[in-house]
Amino acid sequence: MNKVRRPPGLSEPGAPARVPFAVATSTVMARTTGGLYAMGGILGTTLSILMPHDGPGNRGVVAVAAFGAICFGAGLAVLGDRVRPRTHQVLVGVGTILITIACHQSTSPIAALALASFYVFAACDASFFFSWLNASVQIVFAVVCCMGVLLARGDLPWWAGLVPAGVTVAVGGVVGVLARLASDADIDSLTGLLNRRGFDRMLHLELARATRTGQRPALILFDLDRFKSVNDELGHRSGDAVLQKVADEWQQMLGGNRILARYGGDEFALLLPDMSEQAAITLADDMRERIALGCSAGVTSWQPGESGSFLVSRADVGLYRAKQAGRNRTVLESSRRPPLAVELVEAIARETLDVHYQPIVSLTDGGATIGVEALVRWTSVTQPSVTTQEVVRVAEENGLIANLDRFVLYRACRDGLELQAALPDRPLILNVNVSGLELVEKDYVGRIDEVLRATGWPAAQLVLEVTESVLDVNTPTAIANLGELRARGVRIAIDDFGTGYSSLSRLKTLPTDFLKLDGSFITSITSEGEAPPLLEVIALLSVSLGLPVIAEGVENQFQAAVLSSLGYSLAQGYYYCNPQPVKALVERLSKEAAASQRSAARGLIEHS
Ligand code: C2E
Ligand code: MG
Ligand code: MG
């Protein structure tokens, strides 16, 4: 049985090779230690105010020690990841000394006992972040200080320190064991490296840090060439031994702040928190040379705004190309973006994009507005003529679509409330376009929930438009996400229906509430010829499946009349209204509301 070893990847150069577990990053340590210091300081200050004025100790010293702890805590929180892991060990020791001084100088034995309970803080911090050896040293130090100082006061019996000391040992031990058990879920038991789960967690933390600090992490994915034949010809034991050897070689080679993981069977991932693509290629080549087996590598680097999964998928493309090119090589899949994408990142971050709205009208109710479709609008400085479709494509190709769509959804839900207020007599539906790339993300439903919660737009009035081609590919996560959203009341429309590849039979099983008939069908309705027969078929299909169709791109009265005669009930297009900014549409809807009130009043008068 192989002994599980801890990953050394997260330590600073010169720090002990084995840290207790994956979450022990400099930032987490600094915030935890800082928080405990500050909390201890605040409680200590309060006690120094409340304790008796006369007594054996000195309240002033207790107050100074407590104030010092608050300052230390605040400093640590501000310094964050600039504090080296080794410094934390010194800081926990300093904390223990401050508690000891406060206990010694407190003017009442009861206050001294209360202050002694803070030794638990030191034990928790040490057990959580340090190796067992270092944590034990800190706990023993805390216990000795606790027993010693309470005895030295002379106003307490020798056993007074037993409870705080015992609690310190017990809590430290339990926290240490639980933290290590939880951490084992992130570690690959064969190699002792992080596993995929642990790596993804670290990737998330590192990208959040890079966003704050402006660093540019690089990522390398390795895949051992022909590893399957090692397993097949020499057996799985030999395969395991090869994987361990590779992990050992690379661990020895990589000192410092690097995150190495076994990402899959014979796949390894290496995250380099701040490294250029060129330096990462050199490192990948060195690592490949270090092992006896052939190995392919894909290299890429992170750009602000990109998700972790997008970064991994780009490195994967590099790896795939390395294999295609004949294996045993490194291929760079550069993250350098085209200028339009760089400009778009800025626009999303500064929220200088706009959203326009196009009404969706009822053909059976005299053109009454029943909803709006949100469409993103952006004028690029470098390419002013770029179309919305191109903007969406650039966003998709450069990992920006999730951010773009989140911005549009948020803005649309907020503006939706304004539009709804202008037309209070009927609930409006709000159609928002969704990229298929986003739909496959696991936390997609959570993101929609968050926007709905933040804006207060009702789920039952939201329709997500997904293009047919996206739904046609075999993506169970996308289908599951759509199912979950529907369970919350959100409805789904298949956009550009008729241009994709969906077989009609699939429509029955797809999570769908509306079909949006592609504008190309409507364009073919001209006064010169017969209406295309397919339009009639789709109208019948809509009735038999119980799926309302929204006809897109209606540009003239003739097309509208033909659609009505074929039984279509909903439409959208320039004939009714161009996409407009929210203010202009509010005006239009207010007029519509006033007109419908007038006609209702007229109806009432005529009736009576
Ligand atoms: P779509 O969802 O099918 O949107 C309808 C498109 O048809 C819009 O183009 C709209 O301006 C245009 N349109 C409306 N009425 C007429 C008409 O009578 N005749 C003609 N010829 N066109 C009409 P737009 O705004 O350029 O958007 C193009 C596509 O870009 C959209 O097609 C949608 O797939 C995508 N898109 C737009 N906004 C977003 C967004 O926020 N997120 C995502 N993921 N995609 C978006
Ligand atoms: Mg659409
Ligand atoms: Mg469409």
Summarize the structure.
With 608 residues, this protein is of the alpha/beta class.
How would you describe this protein?
The relative contact order is 0.06. The N and C termini lie far apart (about 90 Å). The chain has helices at about 25-50, 60-80, 85-105, 110-115, 120-130, 130-155, 160-185, 195-215, 225-235, 235-255, 275-290, 310-325, 340-350, 390-395, 400-420, 435-440, 445-455, 470, 475-485, 520-525, 535-545, 555-565, 580-605; strands at about 220-225, 260, 265-270, 295-300, 330, 355-360, 370-375, 430-435, 460-465, 490-495, 515, 550, 570. It has 23 helices and 13 strands. Helices cover about 55% and strands about 10% of the residues. A hairpin with a 6-residue loop joins strand 6 and strand 7 (about 370-375). The chain is an alpha/beta fold. It is globular. The strands form two sheets. An eight-stranded mixed β-barrel has the order 6-7-8-9-10-11-12-13. A five-stranded mixed β-sheet has the order 2-3-1-4-5, sandwiched between helices. It has three domains: about 25-185, no CATH class; about 185-330, Alpha-Beta Plaits, CATH 3.30.70.270; about 350-465 and about 475-495 and about 505-515 and about 530-600, Alpha-Beta Barrel (TIM Barrel), CATH 3.20.20. The chain binds ligand C2E and magnesium ion (2 copies). One magnesium ion binds near residues 495, 496, 516 and 552.
